[in-house]
């Protein structure tokens, strides 16, 4: 099932993206705290590719997705979509790019307006972008519903009449309504039951094949991410620590954090768990308000060296298309 | 298996709501040995959490245990009064919940909450209870427990809160610990820490554990025996190996096929279970899985299947296992290969 991807056809390039949240407190707000949610992330996504982004809560994976689509304003860095840096265009100009970049959210209970019918929910982006009116609009909505495995009778119902899996399908239909090129899937299956997750993932794969979609797939379920992604980036405390093809990452994880993260996946196989070597990380993720100096993972890393405290490791290519940011790669050689 | 700690016989629990009677648990029987770890797996609405709440008699209005017995060390807890239950809860049976933030009281210190549990059930002074609380925090791996004991829940991270919950639950050395999705709200690396901790504690203090989860990976990790629930009934029960390698119920087979395999090389398409779980206000007359089952026969719609024993300790509720049922090649193939092998 190998996909044909053109390595020169880059749809999205993110360069040194930073998103810091500043909160002011104290009298007249003279004290500020800076949460470095995303702090210098760079990657490329090819047309038709699925890039997975994994990491634990607070690592900045969702913020990265939301910053790309400008739900948050960029602190610094570039987001180059189809050759244009969309991190600097005005909100008005951004509207035309929102037609090309869509998003699917995690919680299908919160992301659909409960006072609107399903038809209107899917129709809203069609109206906003003036795509169609009247009968044609109706037809598009029906087609979309059928495309995501629902039927046109569902258009007149309200979200509460649907199960979680069906609601997620409605969310996907809404994202598809404007014919996007690129969809950011922010934990689209985390809230769903196991048997329903596979239904949604299969549908996302089919849609990609039929419509040539490109996905940024953000999730914390590592086995599902591996299944759907061509390449995977691992994030920790606002930084990308490793990026590689999905098989390569799972077979030869380079960064100590990726190694620990992958070994922590509970495998549904009693034998594998008995013989598997699990790396249990000590402690918790430090606060992004005051991240550790040098390598951000050093406080939990068992290979920590003196250099890790002082110098931030560079994100370098350790083998073709396999990037990692760890001093172990440079010190031992 | 040594002595039976818990025996559940034909438990039926319903919620009498304004839309009608929701039959959440529709006749569940199982038992648990001393020191054993049992996993109950199921999706939302399968009745797994209601089963565990029934064991503790913590059902909220309008939930009622309609029928059945819950024998804890030989005595039925179903007819017990609230006052009698308070002696058992925390002391003999303890429970940890999914969300450690909502199950800890935000206005009391962690220490207060552990000490409260100890003072309630044990005849010790406040000083002794505090010492014990510090020891419990140390046992569950909280660094510098002497000072951490005076922290409030918001000063703890998610993983530490769940550790504190476990410390409270284990402070009176219960014979049975019920863990309802204890790691679902946690990140994978923290989940690994908590599972490791539970395994260690099980060996150290020989507590029996009932682990309720939707994550097949988590049960494979900790439990020696597994119950698969669907539509308020137990579909299949067996050892972890039996359930994972030779599943005998189409629902179990389907679940195993619908999760991606990390250790597999080439990308295979996932095989989902089509459809959605049944409505338990009007539960189907036959097998609850009938509507989604690829091996369904006519009888499956009409009658709930009995349990068929397929191996010692391994039973499944499926008409396909009846001796007169027509052989189905795929069914036989699937049941011999399981989810993870091959």
Give me some keywords for this one.
heterodimer; A: 333 residues; 8-stranded mixed β-sheet; 4-stranded antiparallel β-sheet; 12 helices; globular; B: 342 residues; alpha/beta
The span between the termini of chain A is: 37 Å
First-last Cα distance of chain B? 31 Å
- Let me know the number of strands of chain A: 12
Q: What amount of the residues of chain A lies in strands?
A: 15-25%
| Rg calc of chain B | 21 Å
Arrangement of strands in the largest sheet of chain A: 6-7-8-3-9-10-12-11
Provide the low-confidence segments of chain B as ranges. none
How is this structure best summarized?
The complex is a heterodimer of chains A (333) and B (342). Chain A has 333 residues and is of the alpha/beta class.
Description of the molecule:
The complex is a heterodimer of chains A (333) and B (342). Chain A is built from 12 helices and 12 strands. Chain A is of the alpha/beta class and 333 residues long. In chain A, the strands form 2 sheets. Chain A has an 8-stranded mixed beta sheet with strand order 6-7-8-3-9-10-12-11, with helices on both faces. A 4-stranded antiparallel beta sheet of chain A has the order 2-1-4-5. In chain A, helix 4 (134-147) crosses helix 5. The radius of gyration of chain A is 21 Å and the shape is globular. The two termini of chain A are 37 Å apart. Helices cover 34% and strands 23% of the residues of chain B. Chain B contains 13 helices and 12 strands. Chain B has helices spanning 48-56, 82-88, 100-103, 110-121, 126-139, 145-148, 158-170, 188-205, 216-222, 240-245, 250-258, 298-302, 329-337; strands spanning 4-17, 20-33, 37-41, 63-72, 75-76, 93-96, 176-180, 208-213, 225-230, 233-239, 308-311, 314-316. In chain B, the strands form 2 sheets. Chain B has an 8-stranded mixed beta sheet, with helices on both faces. In chain B, strands 2-1-4-5 form a 4-stranded antiparallel beta sheet, with helices on one face. In chain B, helix 4 packs parallel to helix 7 and helix 5 crosses helix 7 (158-170). The chains are: A alpha/beta (333), B alpha/beta (342). At the A-B interface, helix 6, helix 7, helix 9 and helix 10 of A face helix 7, helix 8, helix 9, helix 10 and helix 11 of B.
């Amino acid at each position: 099932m190998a996909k044909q991807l053109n390595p020169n056809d880059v749809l999205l390039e993110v360069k040194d993206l930073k998103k810091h949240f500043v909160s002011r407190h104290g009298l007249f707000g003279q004290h500020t705290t800076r949460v470095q949610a995303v702090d210098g992330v760079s990657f490329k996504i090819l047309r038709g590719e699925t890039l997975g982004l994994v990491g634990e809560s607070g690592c900045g994976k969702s913020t990265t997705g939301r910053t790309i689509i400008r739900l948050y304003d960029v602190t610094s860095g570039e987001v180059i979509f189809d050759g244009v840096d969309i991190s600097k265009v005005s909100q008005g100009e951004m509207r035309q790019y929102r037609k090309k970049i869509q998003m699917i959210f995690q919680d299908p209970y919160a992301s659909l307006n409960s006072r609107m019918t399903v038809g209107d929910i899917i129709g809203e982006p069609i109206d906003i972008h003036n795509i169609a009116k009247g009968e044609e609009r109706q037809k598009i909505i029906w087609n979309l519903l059928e495309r995501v495995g629902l039927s046109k009778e569902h258009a007149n119902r309200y979200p509460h009449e649907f199960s979680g899996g069906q609601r997620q399908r409605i969310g996907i239909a809404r994202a598809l309504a404007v014919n996007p090129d690129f969809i950011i899937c922010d934990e689209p299956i985390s809230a769903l039951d196991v048997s329903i997750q596979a239904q949604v993932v299969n549908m996302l794969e089919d849609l990609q094949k039929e419509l040539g979609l490109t996905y940024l797939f953000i999730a914390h379920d590592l086995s599902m991410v591996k299944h759907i992604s061509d390449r995977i980036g691992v994030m920790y405390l606002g930084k990308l620590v490793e990026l590689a093809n999905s098989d390569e990452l799972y077979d030869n994880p380079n960064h100590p954090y990726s190694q620990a993260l992958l070994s922590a996946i509970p495998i549904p196989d009693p034998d594998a768990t008995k013989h598997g070597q699990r790396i249990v990380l000590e402690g918790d993720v430090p606060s992004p308000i005051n991240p550790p100096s040098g390598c951000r993972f050093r406080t939990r890393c068992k290979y920590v060296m003196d250099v890790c405290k002082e110098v931030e490791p560079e994100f370098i290519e350790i083998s073709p298309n396999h990037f990692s940011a760890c001093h172990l790669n440079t010190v031992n050689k | 298996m040594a002595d039976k700690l818990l025996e559940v016989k034909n438990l039926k629990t319903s919620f009498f709501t304004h839309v009608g009677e929701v039959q959440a648990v529709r006749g569940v029987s199982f038992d648990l040995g001393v020191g054993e770890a049992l996993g109950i797996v199921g999706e939302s609405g399968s009745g797994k959490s209601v089963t565990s709440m029934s064991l503790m008699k913590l059902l909220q209005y309008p939930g009622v245990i309609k029928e059945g017995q819950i024998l804890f060390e030989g005595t039925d807890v179903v007819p017990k009064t609230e006052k009698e239950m308070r002696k058992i809860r925390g002391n003999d049976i303890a429970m940890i919940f999914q969300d450690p933030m909502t199950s800890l009281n935000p206005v009391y210190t962690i220490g207060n909450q552990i000490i409260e549990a100890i003072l309630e059930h044990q005849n010790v002074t406040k000083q002794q209870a505090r010492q014990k609380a510090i020891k419990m925090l140390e046992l569950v791996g909280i660094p510098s427990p002497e000072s951490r004991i005076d922290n409030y829940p918001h000063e703890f991270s998610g993983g530490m809160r769940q550790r504190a919950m476990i410390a409270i639950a284990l402070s009176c050395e219960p014979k049975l610990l019920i863990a309802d999705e204890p790691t679902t709200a946690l990140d994978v690396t923290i989940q690994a820490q908590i599972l490791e901790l539970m395994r260690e504690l099980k060996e150290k203090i020989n507590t029996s554990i009932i682990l309720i989860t939707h994550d097949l990976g988590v049960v494979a990790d900790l439990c020696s025996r597994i119950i698969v629930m669907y539509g308020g009934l137990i579909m299949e029960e067996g050892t972890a190996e039996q359930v994972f390698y030779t599943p005998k119920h189409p629902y179990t087979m389907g679940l195993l096929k619908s999760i991606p395999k990390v250790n597999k090389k080439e990308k295979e398409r996932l095989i989902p279970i089509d459809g959605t779980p049944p409505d338990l206000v009007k539960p189907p007359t036959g097998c609850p899985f009938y509507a989604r089952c690829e091996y369904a026969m006519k009888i499956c719609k009409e009658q709930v299947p009995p349990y068929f024993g397929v191996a010692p300790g391994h039973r499944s509720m499926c008409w396909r296992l009846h001796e007169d049922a027509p052989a189905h090649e795929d069914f036989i193939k699937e049941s011999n290969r399981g989810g993870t092998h091959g």
